[in-house]
Specification:
Layout: H1 23-40, H2 42-45, H3 49-78, H4 81-113, H5 140-146, H6 152-158, H7 161-178, H8 183-203, H9 207-222, H10 231-255, H11 260-266, H12 268-277, H13 284-293, H14 298-311, H15 314-330, H16 337-350, H17 360-372, H18 387-412, H19 418-427
C-alpha cells in the first residue's frame, strides 16, 4: 500500500504540513507582499508582471493536452455513448439555467443600487483601448461553425478550449466504438495524463511568485488611490457575488448533498490562486485531480469540467451584467426594460466560450456593448482601473461554480462515491 491512510482509517491519522508549507498560505503571502511592493516601490512592481505571465504560459502549455487526455480517457473508458450523451445534455441544461439566473441577479442589483448614476461621463471624451476593440458580431450559426476546428493541431496550438473539447469527444467516441482494441491507446493516454499532472505539480510551486508579480504590477500601474472613485462599483459587484453564493450556489450545493463551505475549503488553494492570477486555466489540472479524489467518476469529471470552462461562466455573467448597466448609467445612456431584456439575450450568447485568461473579459464586453448598439464601447475605459479587482472576484466565482456544477451532475448520474465524498470534505484536502 502506497498510502499511509486506508479508506477505513480515522481521518485524524492524516498528517498535515506546517502552515508555511501550505500552498494557500504561500499564495496569500505572495499577494500581500505584492500589494506592499506595488504601493511602496512601484518602480519595482511595474517590472515583475513577467512572473505571472510565465506561470500562466506554463499552464497554458499543457492545459489543452490535459483536457484531451481527461476527456478521452473518461469517455472511452465508459464505452457507453448513451451515458456520455446524457451527461452532456444534463450539463448544458444546468449551465444555461444557472448562468441565466446569474445575469438576472446582476441586472436587478445594479438597477436597484445604481452605482453609475451621477457620473455624467461624456463618451466622446473617452478612448477605448486597442484590446477592447469589438470583434465582429457573430450569429448563432457562426458560433456553431467555430466549434469545429479546421485542424485538430491548430485547435491545440491556439488554445481553443471548445474546439479541443469537440475533437476530444469525437476521438473518445471513436475509441469507445473500438472496444477492447482501443485499450493500448487508452493506456498511453492515461500515462500521458499522469505525466502532465506531474508537470503541473512542479509548476504549482511557482504559484506564490506568480501571484506576487501579478498583484504588484496591478497596484504599481493603477495605484491604490485610483481605485477609490470607482469604489461604489466594486462594492456593488462584490455584493452581487455574495448574493449569488447565498441565493444560488448554497442551495444548489445543498441539493447535491454537500456543504458549500466544505467544498470551498477543499479547493481553497485554487480559489486563492485565481484571486492573484485572475486566470481560471491556471487551476484546471488541480480541479480535475481533486474532483476525482472526492469520488466523482472520471467520465463525469472528464466531460463536465472542460465543458463548464466554456459554458458555465457564473461570475463572468455577473460581471457582464453589472458593468454593462453601470456604463450605461455612467454615460447617461437610457436603457429601458426592453433594452435590458435584449441585453440579457445578447449576454447569454457572448458569455459562452471564453478563454478563461485574464483580460479576455474586456474583449467580450466590447463585443457585447457593440451588439447592443446603445452603450458606447469607448466607455469601457472607465472600468480599466478596477478591472483586475473585479476579475479576481468573477474568476473566483467561476471556479467555485464549476466545482459545484460537477458535483451536481455527478449526483444526477449517481456517479459519486458518497462515502469518499463526505470523508474527503470532512477531513479537508491533504496532498499525498
Amino acid at each position: 500500500m502506497s498510502e499511509t491512510t486506508s479508506a477505513g482509517a480515522p481521518e485524524q491519522t492524516r498528517k498535515r504540513k506546517p502552515f508555511y508549507q501550505d500552498l494557500t498560505f504561500q499564495v496569500l503571502a505572495g499577494v500581500v507582499v505584492g500589494v506592499l511592493v506595488g504601493a511602496l516601490a512601484p518602480s519595482v512592481g511595474h517590472h515583475v508582471d513577467f512572473l505571472g505571465d510565465i506561470f500562466i504560459h506554463l499552464i497554458q502549455m499543457v492545459v489543452g493536452l490535459i483536457i484531451f487526455c481527461t476527456v478521452t480517457h473518461g469517455i472511452a473508458s465508459v464505452r457507453d455513448l448513451g451515458k456520455v450523451g446524457r451527461i452532456a445534455v444534463k450539463s448544458i441544461v444546468y449551465f444555461e439555467v444557472i448562468t441565466t439566473i446569474a445575469l438576472v441577479i446582476g441586472l436587478v442589483v445594479v438597477n436597484v443600487l445604481k452605482p453609475g448614476v451621477g457620473m455624467n461621463i461624456d463618451p466622446s471624451t473617452l478612448h477605448a483601448p486597442a484590446s477592447a476593440a469589438p470583434a465582429k458580431s457573430e450569429g448563432f450559426d457562426d458560433f456553431l461553425v467555430s466549434l469545429v476546428p479546421t485542424s485538430a493541431v491548430d485547435a491545440f496550438a491556439k488554445g481553443e478550449i471548445l474546439q479541443v473539447l469537440v475533437f476530444s469527444v469525437l476521438f473518445a467516441c471513436g475509441l469507445a466504438a473500438l472496444g477492447e482494441k482501443a485499450q493500448p491507446v487508452l493506456n498511453i493516454v492515461g500515462t500521458v495524463q499522469q505525466s502532465l499532472f506531474w508537470i503541473i505539480k512542479k509548476v504549482m510551486r511557482l504559484a506564490p511568485f506568480a501571484a506576487f508579480g501579478a498583484i504588484a504590477f496591478t497596484v504599481s500601474k493603477y495605484g491604490l488611490s485610483t481605485l477609490l472613485p470607482l469604489g461604489k462599483l466594486v462594492g456593488v459587484f462584490y455584493l452581487i457575488v455574495v448574493l449569488f453564493f447565498v441565493l444560488v450556489l448554497w442551495p444548489v450545493s445543498r441539493f447535491a448533498g454537500v456543504s458549500l463551505w466544505k467544498v470551498m475549503r477543499y479547493f481553497r488553494a485554487e480559489l486563492v490562486l485565481v484571486l492573484g492570477t485572475s486566470s481560471s486555466e491556471s487551476v484546471f489540472p488541480q480541479l480535475t485531480a481533486k474532483l476525482e479524489k472526492l469520488g466523482v467518476d472520471e467520465p463525469v469529471v472528464g466531460l463536465v469540467l472542460p465543458t463548464a470552462y466554456s459554458f458555465n461562466h457564473d461570475g463572468t455573467c455577473l460581471y457582464f451584467a453589472a458593468v454593462s448597466v453601470f456604463l450605461a448609467q455612467a454615460t447617461g445612456t437610457d436603457l429601458s426594460w426592453q433594452a435590458q431584456l435584449g441585453l440579457l439575450f445578447v449576454l447569454l450568447l457572448t458569455s459562452k466560450g471564453g478563454a478563461g485568461v485574464s483580460g479576455s473579459a474586456i474583449a467580450v464586453l466590447a463585443l457585447t456593448l457593440a451588439a447592443t448598439h446603445t452603450i458606447p464601447v469607448s466607455s469601457i475605459a472607465l472600468v480599466l482601473g478596477v478591472h483586475s479587482v473585479l476579475s479576481a472576484a468573477f474568476v473566483f466565482t467561476n471556479i467555485a461554480g464549476n466545482c459545484v456544477a460537477t458535483l451536481v451532475v455527478g449526483k444526477w448520474e449517481n456517479a459519486i462515491d458518497r462515502v469518499t465524498l463526505h470523508r474527503e470534505l470532512d477531513a479537508g484536502y491533504v496532498a499525498a
